[in-house]
Amino acid sequence: MDTEMKNLFSIEGKTALVSGGSRGIGEMIAAGFLNYGARVYLSSRKAAVCDATAKRLSDRYGRECLSLPADLSDLKGIEYLAKALSERENKLDILVNNAGATWGASLEQFPEVGWDKVMDTNVKAIFFLTQKLLPLLRKSASSENPARVINIGSIDGIKTPSFDNFSYGPSKAAVHHLTRVLAARLIKDHIIVNAIAPGPFPTWMLSSGVGFGGKIEGDGVDWDLVGQGNPSGRVGTLEDISGLAIFLSSRAGAYVVGQTIPCDGGMVAVS
Fold first, then answer.
1. Domains and CATH numbers, the chain
2. pLDDT > 60? residue 1
3. In Å, how far from its chain's centre is CA 190?
4. In the prediction, which pLDDT does 244 show?
5. Residue range 113-123: average pLDDT?
6. Rounded to whole angstroms, how far apart are CA atoms 265 and 250?
């Protein structure tokens, strides 16, 4: 087989930043990247949790996983993260904009703070973190090997959400459209922008929504039961979400531009 074909899905030696990488989908993507040979920076709001996750993943995969904690809900935190990364790296191959927030309340009681927090974290942070990291992405980018930006949206931005989290779905719909806007502008700089819209995965966010109290495993946690409501009969796994992210970051995904790809076991297809 041709050498290039053998390396079609390789991200060996690439440097990635995963925001919201200390748990959930961000941690799953970071794990997949490390397992496939990338060097990964994690960022999340809670420094101790971010540090612990980075060490755990480094130990598990024998690859360098580094912690850069930052609060991305405001511009100050975004600028801090961009500066901290630029002091350590002269280029960035992959940016995964995964940091996110949700807020649950009834329609009648939904507060302004719940609207603003979700929109700031889920939409504004993606735009401004990408903006601030453009110098590092441009230094990595070439026509033969483009830099990649992967925005994490949600199927709740495609279909009507199941929960009363009224700012979350609209914020993710905005992420999907922002992805197309950024893709159209940045492809000429050899920076490819796409989005993934996850469905149900065993994360803290979904655990809170389905009544597991934020727990991922242990007593009272039954992901098989949650998966029964999915056309595929299960919730997603690390392999599902990281496999798609690796595809989008590799040569195999280099002609996919500005798309939002559901990773949901069929929930959007039957909605």
1. 10-263 (3.40.50.720)
2. no
3. 20
4. 98
5. 96
6. 23
Q: Is 184 left (phi over 0), alpha (psi -120 to 50) or beta?
A: alpha
CA distance 84 to 94: 16
Bridge partner list, 150: 96, 194
Q: Which residues does the annotation mark as catalytic?
A: 168
Question: Can you spell out the DSSP letters for 41-63?
Answer: EEE-S-HHHHHHHHHHHHHHHTS
* Cβ-contact 221, 204 below 8 angstroms: no
Q: Return the higher-pLDDT residue of 148 and 212.
A: 148
User: What is the model's pLDDT at position 161?
Assistant: 86
By three-state DSSP, how is residue 178 classified? helix
What are 4-33's pLDDT values in tens digits?
778 999 999 999 999 999 999 999 999 999
Predicted confidence at residue 2, as pLDDT, reads: 67
The Cα–Cα gap between 53 and 202 comes to: 17
Structure confidence at residue 208 (pLDDT): 82
- Label residues 218-253 b or e (16+ Cβ within 10 Å = b): eeebebeebbeebeeeebbebebbbbbbbbbbbbeb
Residue with tokens 């397992």: 35
Judge whether 256 and 187 are in contact, CB under 8 Å: no
* Max avg pLDDT among 8-22, 157-171, 217-231: 8-22
C-alpha distance from residue 174 to each of 164, 244, 263 (Å)? 18, 21, 18
Gap between the Cα atoms of 249 and 53, Å rounded: 22
Determine the Cα–Cα distance for residues 223 and 200; give it in Å rounded to an integer. Answer: 10
Token couple for 240: 């599902």
Q: Cα-flanking dihedrals φ and ψ of residue 263, to 5°? A: -130, 80
Helix (H/G/I), strand (E/B), else coil: 190: coil
